[in-house]
């Protein structure tokens, strides 16, 4: 049975250690190797000290966009000289070379959300009395396809993020803004590469739903995200098991699984061994 290993620190609300998850071969993901989190911007000095000294954090894999970084500035972990930072945006249209300054641009996913809302409204109208069920399926299908778009449009970033985890000297933290969508995709792939079964990958992904009210309250206090979240509900922002199940199912059907997809991007058996040694080694 999956039990989230929450890390409750001042400045984050959705951080956990992936240690303890078993693989299909009976090995265990070791503690203090891979952490996942929401935005690290608000970490207190005491929280940073805990991450560095108790958890041995050596690397931060930041999946936020250039727009988010420009709007929020450098986080406090940037001041820790021996912690390496890896920035890998998962949005194709997110570029430092745009003619519009990043801090003045809209968040890249806002267009996708408008498309989801329009599609859900159309399906609900056509479904009549089955509107709630149709909307739920539409929501899960949309987010599953959204995660697949990360792989389709920014495979370089996905592979680089996994490489950063495998190459980290100590614990690696993977994070985005909420720590559930972009983070959930990259962490889910990492867990699949080392052999964690689907049901536990799905359970870990869905565990963030427990923290969504706190995540939304926290992000609404930031000028970078407040407007985007103004009309959002907890239900709309909560991850569901079926979303990750659809993603894993699609990877199996189209590519023979996560490792099969990574193989199309230059990921090798040696890379898999590196990640396995990192997450599973004694």
UniProtKB/TrEMBL annotation:
Domain Tyrosine specific protein phosphatases span(s) in chain numbering: 156-191
Species of origin: Humibacillus xanthopallidus
Biased composition (Low complexity): 118-129
Pfam family of the protein (one): Y_phosphatase3
Source taxon at top rank: Bacteria
Name of this chain's protein: Protein tyrosine/serine phosphatase
One function term, GO molecular function aspect: phosphoprotein phosphatase activity
Stretch list, region Disordered: 113-138
